[in-house]
Amino acid sequence: MGTTNYTSSLNGKIQSAWAPWLLSIVTLGIYFLFWYYRINREMRDNGIPVNPGRAVLAIFPGGLIIVPAIVSSYNTGQRINALQQQRGLYPSASGWIGLLLNYVMSIGVIYYQAEINKAWQSAGGQPIATYSNNQISMPSTGSGIASATNVKPSAPAGWYPAPDGLSAQQYWDGAKWTEHRA
Asked: How far apart are CA 93 and CA 64, in angstroms?
C-alpha cells in the first residue's frame, strides 16, 4: 500500500451527548444509523481513514451476524481516539469502553458523542497534526522538535508518540517536548 497523508483542518458538529441517544430511541434506531454515518464521515473529512458507508453497513445489516457490528463499534472508538490525538488532546476515547457501553442500554452513543465533542471543541479548526500510515504526527519546528503550541496544555506530562517520527516515543513535560526519547 502507498502512503496516504491527511491534514486536519475542519470541525464536525458539536451536539449534546444525549441527543443522538434520545433521537435513536424515538426513531427506533433510524437516527442512530444517520448519526453513525455522520460522525464517521466527519472523521474521514478530518483525515481519519474510514469509509462511513461501510461503517454503517457493518452495524446494519452486518449486526444481524453480530461480529461486524462489534468490530465497527470498537473501530469507531479507536478512530475518535486518533482524532483526539490529531487535535493535540490527551486521547481519552476507548473502543473497548464504547463497545461495552453499546451493549448496556446502547449508551455507547452518549460516550462516543461526548468524546468526539472534545475533539471538535479543540483547535478551532486549525491544522495541528498530520495522519500518515496509521501514525499521528505533530508539525515540528526547524529543530525537529514540535513547538509547545502544537499540543494542548491539558495534555498531562508523559511519554507520547514522537512528533517527528525519529523515535518511538518522546517525553512531553506538560508544556513542551523535551529531548528525552525512547
From this structure: 26
